[in-house]
Write a structure and sequence with these properties.
mainly alpha; 69% helix
C-alpha cells in the first residue's frame, strides 16, 4: 500500500508528487506540534512547506484529511520502530526487571523528545468527531503497550503480584496516562532533562508488580 493510500491523501503516482506529499506532511507536522490542531491552518502549513494553498488542496480534501495524514504517518513510523524494539528475540534471556529498567526510561525518552507534537496528536485524536477514527487512533497508540505487556507476561513467574496479567495492564495504563498528561501540559517540569522521572516511574512499575531486581521471584515465600 502506498503512502498516499495509507494517509487518506489523493494518490501520488510520480516521484515528484510523492516528494511533494512528504514535504506537505513534514510542514504540517511541524506546525501541528507548534500550534496544535486549531493553529495548524492550511495557509500556515502551505507557508511552512513553501508551496501554495492550491497545492495543499490538490493533495488533501481539507485540513482534517491533512492532519489525519500527519497522525497516520507518525504512528506508522512509531509502530515500525516499536515492533523492532519489542521483538521477543531481542529480549531473550532478560528478566522482567531488566525489561522494565530499559523499556520504561525508553517510553519517557520518547515522550520527552516528541512532547509537543505527541500532546497535539493525542488531543486531536481523542476529541475527533469521527468515532471510527478515534477507535483506530486508540488501537495505534495501544500497540506498543501490548508489546511490553507480552514481554512481561512471558515472565509472569518473576512477578509477585497475585494477578500478574491484570497488574501489568494496570501499571502500563497508569504509566501511559501519566506520560500523556505531561505531554499535554505546558508546565511539564518532570520532562526536564535533569529530572528523575525515568528512575521513579521504573521504580513505581517494579514496586506495583512486585518484581525483584535480583531475578525471578520465589513464589514459595510467605
Amino acid at each position: 500500500m502506498s503512502l498516499s493510500e495509507r494517509l487518506d491523501a489523493r494518490p501520488a503516482k510520480q516521484e515528484r508528487s510523492r516528494k511533494t506529499l512528504e514535504r506537505l506532511l513534514d510542514a504540517a507536522e511541524a506546525v501541528f506540534g507548534e500550534r496544535g490542531a486549531d493553529g495548524a491552518t492550511v495557509p500556515a502549513i502551505a507557508r511552512r512547506s513553501g508551496l501554495s494553498v492550491g497545492v495543499v488542496y490538490r493533495r488533501f480534501a481539507d485540513k482534517d484529511a491533512l492532519l489525519r495524514g500527519v497522525y497516520e504517518r507518525f504512528f506508522a513510523r512509531s509502530r515500525q520502530a516499536n515492533r523492532a524494539a519489542l521483538d521477543p528475540a531481542r529480549w531473550r534471556g532478560r528478566t522482567a526487571a531488566q525489561i522494565l529498567g530499559a523499556v520504561v526510561p525508553g517510553m519517557v525518552a520518547g515522550y520527552r523528545q516528541n512532547r509537543r507534537l505527541l500532546g497535539a496528536l493525542l488531543l486531536y485524536a481523542e476529541t475527533h468527531p469521527d468515532p471510527g477514527f478515534r477507535r483506530r487512533a486508540e488501537r495505534l497508540s495501544r500497540e506498543a503497550f501490548d508489546g511490553i505487556a507480552a514481554l512481561l507476561l512471558a515472565r509472569r513467574s518473576e512477578i509477585r503480584h497475585p494477578d500478574p496479567e491484570r497488574a501489568i495492564r494496570l501499571v502500563l495504563l497508569a504509566a501511559g496516562s501519566l506520560l500523556r498528561t505531561l505531554a499535554w501540559s505546558d508546565r511539564a517540569r518532570p520532562f526536564d532533562a535533569s529530572d528523575k522521572l525515568p528512575e521513579e516511574l521504573t521504580r513505581l512499575c517494579m514496586r506495583y508488580l512486585d518484581v525483584s531486581s535480583d531475578g525471578p521471584a520465589d513464589r514459595t515465600r510467605a
